[in-house]
Amino acid sequence: QVQLVESGGGSVQAGGSLRLSCTVTGNQYSINMVDWYRQAPGKQRELVAGISKTGSTNYADSVKDRFIISRGGPGNTVYLQMNSLKPEDTSIYYCHSQDRYRKLDYWGLGAQVTVSS
After folding, report:
1. Average pLDDT, whole number, for the chain?
2. In this model, does residue 73 exceed pLDDT 80?
């Protein structure tokens, strides 16, 4: 079993920055990628960025060159550094991973990010 806990959400004006953290605990043998998704009211959940155990990263086109995903810190923590934030980045951001053998999805409870114009 894997547990994911997000922190670091908040409110910021357009152009500002925030950093989200996802603390990953539990049996991590079977997981590879840790991803950030987001979901705005009335919209589908979308993939924002992902990072593998070896450090390979991928980004949605809408956040490329503004967001940076990384690993480090105490334990197994995944960060999402969000720069040049726009009002359209306003969403609940979820940390996600998957058991690659059993195809089980793990989700955090989410962190609210609000960007005002």
Report:
1. 94
2. no
Q: What is the DSSP letter of 84?
A: S
Q: Which two tokens stand for residue 111?
A: 């962190």
Q: Are strands 76-82 and 18-26 parallel, antiparallel or unpaired?
A: antiparallel
Structure tokens, 63:
């956040």
Is 38 in contact with 95 (CB distance < 8 Å)?
no
- Condensed to tens digits (0 to 9), the pLDDT of residues 90-99 reads 999 999 999 9
Residues forming a β-bridge with 111:
93
CA distance linking residue 92 with residue 84, whole number of Å: 17
56 vs 100: CA distance, rounded Å: 17
CB-CB neighbours of 105 under 10 Å: 10
